Amino acid sequence: MGQRTVLQHVQRLGAFGASVVITTIVGLVAIPVVIANAGGETWGVVALGQSAALLFGVLVSFGWGTVGPAIVAGMPAPDRPQMFADSLVSRMYLFAVTAPIAALTVWLIAADGSGPVAVLACLAYLIPFLGASWFFVGDARPGRLLVFDTLPVTLGTVFGLVGLVLTGNVFVYLAIQLAMNLLGVVVSGLLIRNRSATVPRFDFHIGRAFRRLGGQRHGVITAATSSLYVNTPILVVGAVIPGALAVYAMAEKFFKYGLTAVGPVVQVLQGSIADPDHVRQNARIRVAARWSPFAAAFCAVVMALCIPWASSLLSQGEIQVGLDLSVPMGVVFGAVAVSQVVGLACLIPLGEGRALAVSTVLGAAIGVPLIVTGALTLGVSAVAWAVAVSELSVAVYQLGVVRRYFRRQPRGTDVSQDGKQAPVERP
């Protein structure tokens, strides 16, 4: 890898990282402000709505958010805008179907009197799944990601917090976020349409819109099942152990901020591991699969140790998360970090989209029953350990797929997907 290539990767990492830093800082600031002005229980309800949006958002993004960057990166540049336009139309129809179901779900789960807050939060956080963040990642446009996707969402949170402080009304906070998130979706779509060499055509034929979903089956299975056992726990806790909702939501919030922090690394790897030269590609995959578990283990320890004191600091002592919850949440973070790198950046270039989907189905099959059982019997820490077990299963399976792929290759050679062999360049 030449010096110029390394410099390009560093620049892209920094540019994508800017979006993460801004989002994370504003998100962390929002926690104490919302708790101070609306109360810990209301903050927990908002977190419930947000988790529901992440769960149902998978049905809206329908795999484009998961495998979309790799698909865009592998397409000729002139074809990319039309692909986004087709995706947006399909996702608009999916949103129209999904949003009422999501709203009804959180209304039924939320405690008495908090249903409207949960519904508005769910809708506000569901809208960004119509956005173009994945397209900007695949198109290697971190500047556009920052200005036209991250900035509207961030400003929505900032303006919403100001409205909350001035009025003391959480509905003002959520309504402002909803409006700004919608603005971000509209602006991103117009940008892609107006800045393209070939203007894309928006085909609103409902039959063709839903037929396009067939090509996304592996991506949506992966995203849906992964989201199921990542976001279901807070819904189960809210329904079965409502008194522990705020505590679990706080621990989970740090896990999700951790994933946001490693996002730029995954984004850069998605764009840099895949290569028409299969020798180079396979060498990069070997390195990523070999070292990601060690890096993730370190991150897991840091996460487990930081959650207790950081949660108390951000909630001003109102929400205390102990090691019994932070340790399994750290394990969850480490396992998901591995599966993000190996699953999204390694398996897709190897043509193992099916294995990626199978791994997440395995995780859901293990995790969901354990989550429900843990909530009904042992309590909130058991829920976190159930998620940890499911995520570890996913990571181990994916690493096993990569290992088997290379063990199938003749020693000293790599085999490309067109069947041609080339000498292996050992990392």
Question: How would you characterize the overall build of this protein?
Answer:
The model is unreliable at 415-427 (pLDDT under 50). A two-stranded antiparallel sheet has the order 1-2. The radius of gyration is 21 Å and the shape is globular. The protein has 427 residues and is mainly α. The chain contains 15 helices and two strands. It has one domain (3-412).
Radius of gyration: 21 Å
Q: How many independent structural domains?
A: 1
Total number of beta strands:
2
Total of DSSP H or I helical runs spanning 4+ residues = 15
- Shape descriptor reads globular
Question: Mind describing the biggest β-sheet?
Answer: 2 strands, antiparallel
Q: What's the overall average pLDDT, rounded?
A: 83
Helix content: over 70%
Strand-helix topology:
Layout (H helix, E strand, L loop, with lengths): L2 H36 L1 H22 L2 H10 L6 H30 L5 H12 L6 H6 L3 H26 L2 H25 L11 H6 L5 H24 L4 H29 L4 H37 L8 H25 L5 H25 L2 H29 L4 E3 L5 E3 L4
